Amino acid sequence: MLRLRASVTYSGVFVDLDGTVWRGRDPIPGAADAVRALRERGVPLVFVTNNTGVRRDTFHARLESLGISPDAGEVVTAAWATAEYLAEYRPNASVHVMGQDVVADELTAAGLTVSETGQADVVVVGYDERVSMDRLTGALRAFGPGTDFVATNRDSTTPHEDGPMPGAGAFVAAVEEMTGHDPLVVGKPSTRMADVAADILGVPLDECLMVGDNLHTDVLMGDRAGIDTALVLTGVSDRADVETTDITPTHVLDSIADLPSLF
User: Which sequence spans correspond to the domains of the chain?
Assistant: First the structure.
């Protein structure tokens, strides 16, 4: 059963990308018009994604190619948020990365030391398209007494135009099983991403709306953060999933094209 509200005013909107604005390389019809309509109504946006393989400036360029202005909203990626988190709480740490090059680049840009061999203060794991026995062994051997385990995110799958692909959760689970360590998760559904997004917009978190295609990341983050959510049916989760889980979106929309109807 959906939580419906007759009249809602949101001070800001968090918008997922993969499965919400586009699916793989295919744009979701009406996405640019929906973003433009919210901007015209003075509603600020921030794009929030667990994707760790693409740089934020590349995301901005891709949004622009779809007709979404570069000033439509900042992009928060799980890679950047992970680097910002460690720069604040472990600024002098050596970090071993099992993930995409973008993760290591973001960590380096944040002033952290990325270590490729030997034990490290922190092991960061995310989606890794180059996963191999050597890379798994390197991650395993990076753990020592006191090493922290941080996951960029735990997505089970990621949407693609040809069908779902394994997500970061598959790689995180492998390291978790090898080491017996539980990771601290930075990306959705962790509320850390919601806090970062609200800070960027400069609005109270409880006045924001989270829009995404995944009940177990986008909507669950919103629930944990205590904010309203809108599930779009263009990605991972469908109406049947809504009926069979205890994660309840405030709104269910066919696609992001319907988002302006909530305002």
Answer: 12-78+188-262, 90-185
Show the DSSP H helices in 14-151 as ranges: 31-40, 56-65, 78-89, 101-109, 133-141
- Tens digit of each residue's pLDDT (9 = 90 or more) over 4-27: 444 468 999 999 999 999 988 889
Residue type, 11: S
CB of 200 closer than 8 Å to CB of 209: no
Residue in 75, 102, 65, 99 with CA at minimum distance from that of residue 17: 75
Question: Mean pLDDT throughout 29-33?
Answer: 97
- Are 12-78+188-262 and 90-185 in the same CATH fold? yes
Q: Residue 210 and residue 246: Cα distance in Å, rounded?
A: 17
Right CATH for 12-78+188-262 from 3.30.390.30, 1.20.1560.10, 2.40.50.140, 3.40.50.1000: 3.40.50.1000
Backbone angles phi, psi at 44, to 5 degrees: -75, 145
Helix (H), strand (E) at residue 230: strand 228-232
Cβ count near 144 (within 10 Å) = 11
pTM: 0.89
Task: Please give the positions annotated as active site.
Answer: 16, 18
